[in-house]
Amino acid sequence: MAPTRAKLADGRDLLFFALPGHRPAPVADRRPLPGRDPDQSQLRYDRTTGQWVIVAARRQDRTYKPPPDQCPLCPGPTGLTSEVPAPDYDVVVFENRFPSLSGAGRAAPVPGDGFVSAPGHGRCEVVCFSSAHTGSFAELEPAHARLVVEAWRHRTADLTAAAGIEQVFCFENRGEEIGVTLTHPHGQIYGYPYLTPRTATMLAQAREHRLRHGGNLFADLLAREVADGSRVVARTDLFTAFVPFAARWPVEVHIYPNRFVRNVVELSADELDGFARIYLDVLKRFDRMYAAPLPYISALHQYADSEAQADGYFHVELMSIRRSATKLKYLAASESAMDAFIGDVTPEDVARRLRELR
User: What positions does UniProt annotate as the active site of this protein (predicted)?
Assistant: First the structure.
């Protein structure tokens, strides 16, 4: 079903996604919010790497670890306290009040010589997985998790079609160790005006692979992981979850559909159901690894239906910096300065442990 649309006090979009039989009931947002500046962030071109850097100074003012009774993601039935002015909700998406990118629909930035900058146009949205302040994605009921997937699908379709958006990135940061400042279960969606460096690198590798071997790089890697089997964590008729051969993170699992699609929009209804199930399965395994919930990053790698991104294969990368029950993996000099990752555990050992955590 189409989401129920509303507006926040400063004009930002708010979308309610509801479970069957539930009817969203938003109220007027009566907060005295300042007007929005579509040019509040900036892109600066790094000539040494050929990459864009986003400078968004206003994000310094974003809400930082509020007490539970002041959480801006909990329902706000009075219209005076919350980013979600409603007595309750299932899943909700709204434009970020403190975005890294805003004012989508403008021309893409153009690299150049010298000190090159451009307005930080794009789109940043927040996805609240549930109205419950405590809990996590892994604790959602399957139908509720499927509704989050539907929200990702809807927003991916809308943003991919928007002018000036080159890449749509759905993600979640979970845990204070990752840097989360709002503990309410939520994720985010970025609509970038350019291809991010990681995506550009992966597409270049995939293009080279196709020219040399005639096949799709990601599909071939998936086939090799399945044939090897030692790093496969879970597999169904529709999806495969595995620890990659050259994993960078202490805990890292990739989830691939078993057939080639470029993004979540191209998944069939059965595949959307299967995706929600295997995603929950992997996250539940994560939370069984140690006594405390595992901090993680979830990254949905999606690609547009365009010639430039034709070799992209939709998949999810889940990663954690926890390398033992009491130790974290810090991205120090080799990783942060040189982008040369050093693994502390073998991918095969991590996969074996996750397989055992049924």
Answer: 186 (tele-ump-histidine intermediate)
